[in-house]
Amino acid sequence: MVTYGIIIPIMPSIIKEMNGDSTMTGVLVAVYAAGIMSASPLFGTLSDKMASRRLPMIIGLSGMLIATIIFMLARTYWLLIIARFCQGVSGGAVWTLGLALMTDSFPANQMGVQMGKSLIGHTMGLLGGPPIGGVLHDAFGAKAPFYFCIAFAALDIFCLSILIEMRADEVLLIRQFEPELRERAIARGEEIEEPKQTSIWRLIITPRLLAAVCVTTLEAFDLASLEPTLPYYLNARFGMTEGQIGLVFIAFTMPTIVSPLAGWISDRYGARYLCAGAVACCASFMLILSIESKPLWGIILNLICIGLSTSSFIAPVLGEISAVVRRTGDKNAYARAFAIFNIAFSFGMLIGPILAGFVYQKHGFKWNCIVIACVLYFFVPMLLLWMGDRKAKMEDVALYEREEQERKRQLHEIEIIKAERKAAEELNQKTLV
């Protein structure tokens, strides 16, 4: 997400050179979201069929690197749009598969904590990108932020190339021996469950996942609505430079350190009341931000509170989505489910900047904040009704533990099958001799 956030403080100057306005800035932000929405289902389906997450992620990061170079060299607005769209496509691949890889690697009772940890990196990229971009722009020139992104993408590609996917190897092994496992189960008189398959549509219409999707969209809408307008507001009211605007965005980034704590709470008590309460708090702080007479320190304090609330209500989402997929019985649908997460996030990023740019131009920053607050308040009742509570969380953990026991039993049986095959081959060789 650093490639998304890093150009936020320098985007007004880029658009100004092209004689553009804040609406054009909002479109550039939204185009990134459109790219994510386009790519996420494709990469999610591909990854679920392959069982591996690494190769598609490397492809996505390579595309990100190339698109960033194109954006850096672009001199026309349409080329900026194309490059930004390609960055979104690559980002959709990486984020979808990264969440699926996390689900492969951690148990159900740790999903909230692990999601919280990942959100530190996600939000630091999304909201830490602006201060990095602003400082690099002021200190080393217009191309410095892009050089940083290129180097970061190259480092990511290297790290992924040496990643060992233990769970992917196990999934492929179980698929390979599935006929033998079924035959042995039938011989023991066990009831055979046919492999279940679920569609993206069936996942979407599940109330619990729909609530998680709304939370995801609200987070993106909340942040993306401020990103294209806050720099203009700070510049117009306080005369701040790109670097100074970037430093103000640190107020958004700092509260992400509470994300693992919020995840820990959701792992033990469920997501329902945590998410609903945090969304309501975020809306309240957004209303306070709309008060125009505040000094700069008051704005920064408000941004910290908004970031704190946002980090709290997004952390439980990974566990909620994983739980919905687990209850369908389709073990190969996690990447597709996280593609829905990405689409929801992208939808918020898509409508947020466009709506915010329009409201800001017509009515100013005050009404922009009021509109955001009203949208957040509107969805609080849905979260209270549909998100999982403590009882649902305990059921999720129990279901995960049963799945793990079955997986370990299958792997143990595969080792027995291998040993039997080896013994049979050795016996045949002795017979031939």
TrEMBL record:
Transmembrane segments: 23-43, 55-74, 81-102, 144-164, 246-266, 273-291, 297-318, 339-359, 365-386
Pfam families, A to Z: MFS_1
Listed CDD domains: MFS_MdtG_SLC18_like
Membrane-related topology note: Multi-pass membrane protein
Gene3D superfamilies listed in its UniProt record: MFS general substrate transporter like domains (1.20.1250.20)
GO cellular component: membrane
Gene Ontology terms for molecular function: transmembrane transporter activity
Domain Major facilitator superfamily (MFS) profile: 1-393
Transmembrane helix recorded as keyword: yes
Family statement drawn from the similarity comment of this UniProt entry: Belongs to the major facilitator superfamily. Vesicular transporter family.
Protein name: Major facilitator superfamily domain-containing protein
Taxonomic source organism: Lobosporangium transversale
